[in-house]
Amino acid sequence: MSAVNLQVKDAADARLAADSLAEQEMFRRPSEWRIFWEAFRQDRLAVGAAAVIALVCLASLLAPVLSPYDPTVGDNSLRLAPMGTPGHILGLDGQGRDILSRLLWGGRVSLIIALLPVAVASIVSVFLGLVAGFFGGKVDMVIMRALDVFFAFPAVLLAVAIAGVLGPGMLNVMLSLTIVLIPYISRVAYMATVTVKNELFVDQARVSGARPRQILFHHILPNTLSPVIVYGSTLVGIMIVLGAGLSFLGLGITPPRPDWGIMCSDGRNFLSVAPHVSAVPGVVLIIVAMSFNIVGDGLRDALDPKLRK
Amino acid sequence: MLKYLVYRVATIVPVLLGVSIVVFLMMKLIPGDPAEAILGPAATTEKIEMVRKSLGLDQPFYVQYVRWLWKVVHGDFGTSIAVNVPVAQLVWPKFWNTVLLTIGSLVVCMIVGLGVGIVSGTRQYSWFDRISMSLTLVVANTPAFWLGLILMVVLALRLGWFPATGMYSMRASEKTVGDLIHHMVLPAITTGAVSAAIIARLVRSSFLDVIRKHYITALRAKGLAERDIILRHGMKNALPPIINIVGLQVGYLMGGALFTEVVFSWPGIGLQIYSSIVARDLPVVQAAVLVTTFVFVLVNLSTDIVVAALDPRIRRA
Asked: Is the N or the C terminus of chain B less surrounded, counting Cβ atoms within 10 Å?
């Protein structure tokens, strides 16, 4: 009797379990990543821009393989040869160096000069913004008021001044851009933290007995990341432009190593006879910076449920 | 409003103090001894020690800072290492040249930015809107120095419409306003282009926001002319964010003018900072950065106050 009963109960349990599985399957939400990807995919412009960035990154990465000539050694017989010269699709610069090869090698420098400071500044800023926003009070005041001071400087001026004081060099440029970026990204992380901190689900977690550390890392941190990532991707474009500006002023990397800013600057003496020397790297720089901008907008729209189409 | 005013003015005092500390430390942190730099490599140890003492370099940092700040507040920025004249004499005239350039670029970006933004915002998805928004995206990502070079080659060197460099013609017997404006056109466009693009995009989205509000629909239903609706009623509500961004752009223009000034040899504070960095003339860099940042802070403060005056919601917050 009891055995039969048990069997029946097991069968009922099994049926129940099967039902709930089917139910789960029915009501299962697609993962956050999937929702984001579906939304981002709709945005043709952003996908195109992302493809451009991927292509440029790949080409720069493969510069040693792809570039047809040595970027630092010139052929004086072909100085300033125009675009379409046989063997030199994009022409040659004032020292007879192949512009395509210099673009590929220069991309490595220009991209890293922009990407690394944004990445480092984002990590520092998320930490600062999170701590200031979550703990509030004196911690908030010390961190945010200190950042206000750096925020008070015009960004371009601060970058030029720091890079100028430190002296030329790739590391110094990246350091100056990182310092310039931190107050801006920190504000974004801080605002996101303060907004999320007051949401009901955080109260719920607290009432359920979650420790501050759990609340901070499991509930608040994930919600501050998306605005920082969106802002960061736009900033990469701006940093490519600003980094090129520093190189143009001679505060960036030291010749003969190329980067896109130095290439624009090198061509300035031949502008009226061979405008392509300066124009080509300028156009590449604009396209890449713009692509980061478009991807940033696309990310923002795809990550924000209200803006999803 | 008065309470807000007092509060906002009070908040910038610690910021300005902080700025002065950062600028002071920035110049202290660089390697090398100013006394050695002044005297050159042949100086004896006693001589260096003497100069260090006369410059106050033997004192602790905070004493040096307070002394320096005291002098700065009284308009004394020290002496230029490179040209041996008082820094204030060197920096102030340059500063006013930059202010002139900033005003010029502000005019450019207000006319272009507001004009394009309003037309685009009121005719969303029209051809004008599509083309101008694509263009603003390109321009917003164009390095100012590169744009300056291109404009210089095409409009100054090839076509000869504008002078390529400087503020006044060398040959002119006196400095006239017309000559100044003629020299200013290209630098002003170069400096203002990025801001114009940013302002145009913001004005557009601000107008799109307002134009969908119910009160606009109500005004349309009442039969008001579209022009009056946009310029008199729409404008009022679209304005606060626009003023906010314009204020921010003024600061950006002052900093961004540096690249323009270098390209066009405009004798402003940016060019001065650049040439002083190259010459390692740090007292000049220090003073120029300090003065520009102070003005930047004051501009931002006035922007906030204007916005608060226009929008009662902000001063209550």
From this structure: C
